[in-house]
Specification:
heterodimer; A: 226 residues; mainly alpha; B: 550 residues; alpha/beta; 2 domains; eight-stranded mixed sheet; 16 helices; disordered C terminus; signal (chain B); endoplasmic reticulum (chain B); CLUMA_CG012687, isoform A (chain B); transmembrane (chain B); membrane (chain B)
């Protein structure tokens, strides 16, 4: 029965990415570019680990004990993810929607497998815990955020970006990069339960990051005619 | 660039391997692990006793719910009764018993019930694995939750899906211990007198190395024996002339092991001729466990005739009166057909040696004799009769009084002194205070620690440790590996819950599928607002240009 639960949580974590790959027309282009994006994710993480070793030991692993400075430092290391993702984007030719989707799907697949894979594997164990379902839902949120970031980075790299929109793009990128500080910090201070936290994170990712980015992207697409 | 490509290729190819290695390293961990001990398991004279099962991997259940051989019952010891235990033994697949946090939690009735339950557990072998867990709040909470769940078996559908279950996992062992042995330690009081054919008094006691739980029981008899050794050796060192040779011996086979090592002691000492001219053998058995101020001399021969036993009994009675205690006499003939001896002195009597047992118990079947919970007899006394007194101090007092009676009686019997001198010795030179009692109260098996050997060597001469070994082909006793085990309790959900979760996940994924399929519509909608804005901008721009040129 525990294998059944493992199947459930894996389906919850993986199928949304598969749907995105299958039904957005990406499958027509093959998996090569997606694998490339995933490999660059792994390389970026290795670089990040190297950099994190130079940081002072302010990073606290205990989630109940929120360390503002430590989180800030960690988030600034996360900026390296943006560099990696921008590199992925630069390696994929063309300027269609699929370019962005390829990068986002490749990146988030690798991220979900490597960061959530081990935790989800434990769902096979005899012990039941809601944490596995929550981690799966978190990886769904991660997918939305990765798509948004890819979009924003592409917009950021465009020279023909509307000048009015440039500060918004930068602001959104920074807001996403330091999400762990301001969003998690606020939720922790408010003392909200895990499930409500997940719902709020999901709502923030869709309505505060996703939809505004989609609007900016549509605007750009309109301008360059894709 | 080429280097980067080869690096990405390496990561791409190596990733599945790295991932597989990581997966293998990961294991499922549980938050709820408890230290437990398997119920004792041994075999004496071909009769197995205790719990024969060891490993458990079953669903946790309360005894008040329906259970079968695939369920492990989790219960507090005070909730179990003898009848319930019999039902569990025959129907359930395992039993985990939670010990009480402290004795004061238990009512008098519960304590009495506990003694009966313990006797039932030690009466025969059980196929079912039975474990004892020391009190732990988390385990108590889990038991309360299981009890609560079973009381609401007929709850609504949604609650039944979401209810928590528990899986109990124990990987215990039940291997037979090879070459089992029972230790006997003996020594005699040193005398200056070279005369060796003096009559001998043997003071014999046992160390109870296990009860229903494979742990050392409160060994109050051994404590009294050590106090006697300690104090008598002081007098012997002061050169008081003794009429007797005094031998002390301590063996590790109590009534549960049918005093098996006694035969070995008799063979090695009396039969071999090392000890001759025995005045009497005093066996100490459960002298201080009963809090009441009454003692019994158990003998298999009536003590109506004048003899050594009668003489010593009279001394004991006289000394007991001084401490407001009574000494009674119980005569019980030996049943030669029964291979199980009621008292230790019977084995000496069968070999034609004068012997008797001193005990605070009247009945050899009294549960206090083999009880792991014998201290509870004191706690019930203190909670009812003396609510303010600490039961430990009541117990220490009892040990003190018992030792004094025995010691004074022995001094009276063995020394060639006039009455006044004997009384003076008893009063002045034999102080038995709490400190000296505490020094000997937690004695451990000779096979585990050296504290008994060190004490014997300090006060006695000719100290010898011998072992009663079981026969290889037809062992009279067998011990099984108890070991400390770990109890893992996992929270599990019913199968129905995962089906229900699957249904919800399917709905959620179906919604996502729809959103992805129809995302172009959302995009078109957003683009249409963008287009409107663009058009407005353009129109505004044109009108602006127009106004500029007109």
């Amino acid at each position: 029965m525990t294998l059944f639960h493992f199947g459930n949580v894996v389906a919850l974590a993986v199928l949304p990415i598969y749907f995105l790959y299958k039904f957005s027309g990406l499958s027509e282009y093959g998996l090569t570019k997606i694998f490339h994006a995933g490999s660059i994710y792994v390389f970026t993480q290795l670089c990040k680990m190297l950099i994190l070793t130079f940081f002072p030991e302010t990073i606290n692993t205990d989630p109940a004990d929120f360390n503002f400075l430590g989180e800030c430092l960690r988030c600034s290391a996360d900026l390296l993810d943006f560099v990696g993702l921008a590199f992925v984007l630069s390696k994929i030719p063309g300027k269609s929607h699929s370019k962005l989707l390829t990068a986002a799907v490749g990146w988030s697949s690798a991220e979900i497998i490597l960061s959530k894979g081990l935790i989800l594997w434990r769902a096979r164990g005899a012990e039941f815990s809601w944490i596995y379902t929550q981690k799966s839902l978190e990886s769904n949120i991660l997918l939305v955020v990765t798509c948004t970031v890819t979009c924003l980075l592409w917009l950021f790299s465009r020279h023909d970006l509307n000048r009015k929109h440039a500060p918004i793009v930068t602001f959104l990128l920074l807001a996403i990069a330091f999400k762990a500080v301001w969003l998690d910090g606020t939720l922790l201070v408010m003392g909200i339960g895990t499930w409500t936290c997940l719902a709020i994170k999901m709502a923030v990712s869709i309505f505060c990051f996703g939809l505004p980015t989609l609007y900016l992207y549509a605007n750009m697409a309109q301008t360059i005619g894709i | 660039m080429g280097m980067l490509n080869s690096l990405t290729d390496f990561i791409k190819n190596g990733l599945p391997i790295i991932f597989m290695v990581l997966l293998m390293c990961s294991s499922s961990l549980s938050d709820t692990d408890f230290e437990i001990q398997r119920m004792v398991h041994f075999e004496i004279m071909g009769i197995p006793i205790g719990s024969a099962g060891s490993s458990l991997n079953m669903e946790a259940r309360s005894f008040s719910s329906d259970f079968n051989f695939r369920s492990c019952i989790l219960a507090r010891i005070q909730d179990l009764s003898v009848d319930l235990f019999r039902v569990i033994k025959s129907k359930a697949g395992g039993l985990v018993i939670l010990m009480p946090q402290n004795e004061t939690q238990l009512s008098l009735e519960e304590k009495e019930n506990l003694f009966l339950l313990e006797q039932e557990m030690l009466s025969e072998e059980t196929r079912v694995p039975i474990y004892f867990a020391n009190y732990h709040q988390n385990l108590a909470n889990i038991i309360a939750e299981i009890d609560n769940f079973s009381s609401k078996m007929k709850m609504d559908f949604l609650n039944q899906i979401n209810s928590n279950g528990y899986q109990v996992v124990v990987g215990g062992t039940n291997a037979v211990i090879k070459n089992p042995k029972i230790s006997i330690i003996q020594g005699e009081l040193p005398t200056e007198d070279p005369q060796t054919n003096k009559p001998t008094i043997i003071i014999f006691s046992q160390l109870k190395t296990f009860g229903v739980v494979p742990n050392e029981l409160p060994n109050l008899d051994a404590t009294i024996l050590m106090l006697l050794i300690d104090n008598l050796s002081k007098l012997f060192n002061q050169n008081f002339s003794s009429k007797y040779r005094i031998i002390f011996a301590l063996h590790e086979s109590g009534s549960l092991l049918n005093f098996h090592a006694t035969k070995k002691f008799i063979e090695a000492n009396i039969d071999e001729g090392n000890v001759r001219n025995i005045e009497f053998v005093v066996c100490l058995d459960t002298l201080a466990e009963n809090p009441e101020s009454i003692f019994y001399l158990h003998s298999s021969k009536p003590i109506t005739n004048p003899g050594t036993t009668t003489k010593f009994f009279e001394v004991l009675q006289k000394k007991a009166e001084m401490y407001e205690a009574t000494f009674d006499y119980v005569h019980k003939k030996i049943n030669l057909a029964d291979p199980f001896h009621k008292w230790n002195h019977e084995i000496f009597n069968i070999k034609k040696n004068p012997a008797f047992t001193l005990s605070s118990l009247n009945n050899p079947l009294d549960p206090l004799r083999t009880s792991f919970f014998s201290k509870y007899a004191y706690s019930s006394l203190s909670s009812n009769d003396h609510p303010d007194s600490d039961y430990d101090s009541v117990m220490l007092k009892k040990i003190q009084v018992t030792t004094k009676i025995l010691l004074e009686a022995l001094v009276h019997y063995i020394f060639n002194l006039d009455e006044e001198a004997k009384d003076k010795i008893a009063k002045d030179t034999l102080p038995i205070d709490e400190q000296s009692i505490k020094k000997y109260i937690s004695l451990q098996s000779i096979q585990k620690s050296h504290n008994i050997k060190t004490a014997f060597e300090m006060f006695l001469k000719n100290v010898k440790i011998s072992y009663d070994k079981a026969d290889n082909l037809d062992p009279e006793f067998k011990f099984y590996d108890q070991g400390d085990s770990k109890l893992h309790i996992y929270k599990v959900k019913p199968a129905l819950f995962d089906l229900f979760l699957l249904l919800i996940i399917c709905c959620y994924l179906f919604c996502l599928y729809f959103i992805i399929i129809h995302f172009s519509k959302v995009y078109d909608l957003i683009q249409s607002t963008v287009t409107t804005n663009h058009d407005e901008n353009k129109t505004n721009g044109v009108s602006h240009v127009k106004s500029k040129y007109i």
